Fold:
Amino acid sequence: MTYDVIVVGGGHAGIEASLACARMGQNTLMISILAEQVGATSCNPAVGGLAKGHLVRELDALGGEMGLLTDDAGIQFRILNITKGPAVRGSRAQIDMDRYRVIARNKILTTPNLSLIQEMVKSLIFEEGTVVGVRTDLFNEYKAHRVIITTGTFLNGMIHIGETRQEAGRFGEFAAKGLTDSLREAGLNVGRLKTGTCPRVDSSSIDFSVMEIQGGDEIPNPFSFRTDRVKFAREKKQLPCYIAYTNEDTHTLIEGNFHRAPLFTGQIEGVGPRYCPSIEDKVNRFRDKDRHHLFIEPQTAENTECYVNGMSTSLPPDVQRQMIHSIHGMENAKIVRYGYAIEYDYVDPTELRHTLETKKVKHLYLAGQIN
Structure:
């Protein structure tokens, strides 16, 4: 079957690309490795923040879905830097990660002109310098006038937890294998990046009474311009986050295990982003600091599990347990999910036009974290 547009991947970028195309009347196919994970958030349970909040609002002004999804699934809303000028303020929301994924997937499945199929794209189909379709792991071929790649961290994804390595695009999910070869075949400059995520802790094992409470704004502001602000402010229920701190014991423990950190042993080859350093990187680079902030964030409205924001790490499990237990209020905390680093393939953004179409292959677009 021939489509107007094929979108490869079902994360933030894939959702927006698919919905935008379908709403413009284009017959669109989203291909995702795991259909139930469309809309899943890999990292912290938040949307927006400084600079990023502006992007979400701009996306909303263009008819995007992220603002509406956030308003629906949000469990705390804050405007950062509220005491400063408007140019440096940023809207940020904590979201119920489970609900966000469900409503995002339902939106994909109920939008006219949009189909979803669970397969893995293994290669692109080219004809005379133009992409004309994709081939999947099930040996299906889908033709299209345009192809949009939004693979996030899944291209040849490799997870690192201490000395352990696992091929995955997200913990427990297949990495996307094969597609990178097609991108290289097309002459695109492909490199390697790394990012990471933090441990998740059983909320019932945390002593929140000794931590600083951080509530949402008294009058919450929605992300979307299309949300009824009066009703939202009246009815939206919010949960608090909490602030904790690392200490000298934490830093000494981390420093004493640098020899087991994939970031320093050469096990990780990719370059990490400046805006989201791991805790071992922060301790290494800023050893003069007495402490680092940790934000203890609920992952769902039920608050059964918390994300320890600020403690992104790929250190071994035994070290992660000791790190968590060194934090005041988490001496008896139980880790539900260990933090990890992930390496993945990306395409040099200079390969793209301003439209996100690749310069070397007609009708092939790249969006999201692949850039």
Summary: Residues 200-338 form a domain with the Elongation Factor Tu (Ef-tu); domain 3 fold (CATH 2.40.30.260).
